[in-house]
Design a protein that fits this description.
Layout lengths: L1 H17 L7 E6 L3 H18 L2 E6 L2 H10 L6 E7 L3 H10 L3 E3 L4 E10 H7 L10 H6 L8 E6 L4 H12 L6 E5 L2 H14 L4 E6 L3 H4 L2 E3 L10 E2 L9 H4 L1 E2 L6 E8 L2 H4 L1 H9 L4 H13 L4 H11 L1 H7 L3
Parallel strand pairs: 1-2, 6-7, 6-8
Antiparallel strand pairs: 3-12, 4-12, 5-8, 5-9, 5-12, 10-11
Helix pairs in contact: 2-13, 2-14
Length: 321
Amino acid sequence: MKSIQNSAIACVALCMASLPATAAEKVNIGVPSWTGAQAIANVLAEVVRTRIGGEAELVPGNNATIFQAMDQGKGDIDVHPDVWLPNQESFTNKYVKEAGTVQLSSNPYEGNQGFCVSQDFAKKQNITDIADLGRPDVAELMDSDGDGKGEMWIGAPGWASANVNQVKVRDYGLGDFIEPVRAEESVKTARIKDSIAKGEGYAFYCYKPHAVWFMFDVEMLSEPTYEEAKYKMVQPSDSADWFEESSVATKDALKQVQIAWSKSLAERSPAIAEFFDGFSLTAEDVSNFAFEISGNGRDAGEVAAEWVKNNPDRVDAWLGL
């Protein structure tokens, strides 16, 4: 009898040993170059690690790379943390609406974008509207390299909004006076600080939410009121002749900003996909994150960990608890 019991125990142990171990929930989070996206990516990762008990890796990438990886569904990159619509509509049309491989969250926050100058520069030169940047006297004050055109930062390489802004410079009739510049956002931030300190002119693409509103005294210039008929934007991913085919002579509409993730994630890591579906932030949340990172020079992971620890009720709500 004892021999039979021992055999049974051995069989159970052998069978349990042969079962596959339960795989941990895993996610690779895309990290675009702008500060708000970096902040949100770190919040997502922190919740996955500390509340779900899963694994999260942060993977740098631009919009095209992240959406393509989500479409493939292999887990190389599973989520985009900060999708601005309609800026990135060419990607959502392709992968959300047509291919059906990417999921958008249903809890967006509102964003606004335009062009800014420092309040001091605006007051001294009577600058209130985007058309004022085409005044020869204003353009001259923004010309730091002596090429006869004032520089204006329009966004970082790979940003859909930078393409929109390049078209706007042309269609607002600023091409003879303004040189659109693409550079990383840190370059823009340093230039704002330097121009204010030296009393020089500088214009730049700006958006809300963002740390810049906490860091400097700046103001957004007025533009022609948004009209859908005057806003035709073709992105490079849609056509090699995107610049010639586009026409944008109006302010952007207010944005809907949300996260997106690969639909394949629901099969591989269902708890994480469910968390993404309930995730939401406000514009004020994102501005505060960005200020801590850009304005106070704090590590994005540290800021995210602190916020998640201090806001358990909101995190519980995301997780359906």
